[in-house]
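Q: Sequence in, structure out?
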Amino acid sequence: MSGADLSDTVQDRGGRVRAGEELNTPAVDAWLKDRVPGLTGQPEVTQFSGGASNWTYRLHYKDVAEGGDFILRRPPAGTKAKGAHDMGREFTVQSALKPVYPVVPTMVGLCTDEAVTGSEFYVMARIAGIIPRKNMPRGLVLDVPTTRRLCTNVLDKLIALHQVDAQAAGLASLGKGSGYCQRQIEGWSARYDKARTWNVPSYRRVIAWLKERTPQDVANVLIHNDWRFDNVVLSESDPTRVIGVLDWEMATLGDPLMDLGNALAYWTHADDHFLMRSTRRQPTHLPGMLRREEVVDYYLERAGYRVDRKGDWPFYEVYGLFRLAVIVQQIYYRYHHKQTNNPAFRHFWILANYLDWRCKAIIRQAKG
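A: Exactly. Output:
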């Protein structure tokens, strides 16, 4: 590991607030000071660029020696804090999880009064550390054994989440019960049909195969539903140690192997097809990172689920890739119909075609 000074490179500090997305800072400041003793001065407000769903801000009270660094999350303008942007749900899930899963951020408060800044929002304490994104931060170089330890530590945190007692945590009502796998295949299939454009495949063969192979749930546990390296925070003093897990917007009760399948859809190797490499948003390409098949073996051994790697596992892998294809196509649909002009989305239809090919390749190799 490099001995370079990482103090200015490892932390996500936020940037300038985007035009039209400003907070009512005086109102938020007053609301926060009513709930946090000892806050003085005015907060420096910055906005994080990552994430396409909820807007996320940092509020830093530089005059406060400790406990003056916060994260505020709110839905985008024009949406209500229900359903896909339910601030209360995010707040409640993390509040309940914190005592039994300590890497969850500490919740500060939930504001349901939309008069404060135009929507519901919640505030949590910021976890200062390293967020591993597409590449590790400049100046941070890990050797192969250290990279492997980082990789397995991140997987261990996923396994630990799946072992949380949801009933004891007060989260037994978070999901809809058994039948999670079937609901996911039906739901994502319907979403793809609605988002399909003329230049992408039908996915009929993939959907039919998934519906035919849909298993019974192996368990009904707490799942994150967006498990990636860029949703964890690492210790600055030991970049292999996970000190935070972020983005609980889609957390629910469901099948843990579906959660793992989703995670592997983003797990890109250095020798993958160039189209797959173009999707990489986490440093799984580094020497020392487990390969996808090793991730599955590691997880199954430690989590204790008995799954036929050749006969049963391909369903979860194809599901993860199909779900990613739907997400990609939903974004491209917005671009195609001029609901957004972001040029980064222009070629997403090509990726939707590639993911169809990759799903079919796994299907051909699956036993039986």
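The chain has two domains: 25-125, 144-365.
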